[in-house]
Design goal:
Elements: E1 12-19, E2 24-27, E3 46-47, H1 49-59, H2 63-70, E4 71-75, E5 82-86, E6 99-100, E7 103-104, H3 112-116, E8 119-126, E9 131-141, E10 147-154, H4 155-161, H5 164-168, H6 172-183, H7 191-202, H8 204-213, H9 216-219, H10 224-232, H11 234-250
Antiparallel strand pairs: 1-9, 2-10, 3-5, 4-5, 6-7, 8-9
Helix pairs in contact: 7-11, 8-11, 10-11
Length: 270
Amino acid sequence: METLTGLRGLDRIIVPIRLTSQSKIVFQCYPGVPCFKLCCSDLFLPLTPYDIIRIRDKLKLSTDEFLLLYTEPFMLPRSGLPIVRVKMFDNEEKTCPFLNESGCSIYEVRPLACRYYPLGLGIFRNREEKRNEDVYYLVKEGFCQGLDSGNEMTVEEYRISQGIPENEEPIKEWAEIIMKKESLGPVEVPEKSLELFFMVSSNPERFRTFILESKFLEIFEVSEKELEEIKKDDLKLLQFGFRWLKTVLFGENLVKKKKEAPSVKRIKPF
């Protein structure tokens, strides 16, 4: 098959054109494309909190086991917030640890970043209308021969075909925390705030233990119904955690404090 783009090798271009959900793109990827699997090496592959839960469960591992075997911590450059990313193999190609001869071994639970490719996503705050806007852009890499081939579709049709909406919706509040921190600029982030953000973002098991075994329930109001949900459901736990982070980091009061809470050191907001 002839190369369908004007790029070569590892050239990487982010097309500086703002795309909307109704913009048209042409892209296909399947085992018959000559470049199949070339995009699965030497990656910065961030994991959302929901990615961690889904992949961990697929591999039948505890969160600690999954994080130790397959990830490494990474500081987001613009926000200065810590997340985890997939740890590439220590070989010449730096291949993804989930890549095998037939492709992605965890394809049905692949990370959100993989589902988006070759699109990129930006979230911007529309201050006039007081709402967030999703903005998309196209990433063109020299080896990719799936670009400009296949059927034309809108960005939203592509998102739906890749299962993006149902994997994105559960972590929108988490993305909003990162975006809000980015908007504050290079302010110093207290160490305790970084630890709390990282715990909620990467390890639901440890966050659940923190809720149940610390003074958390003496300080914050949690209904019996919600407490039962977060004891059993990792996704409910995550979404509670995002609201709690907004409360302690930005003062949004989404998880209310009890009137007679024990005396504890107050976490300094961003």
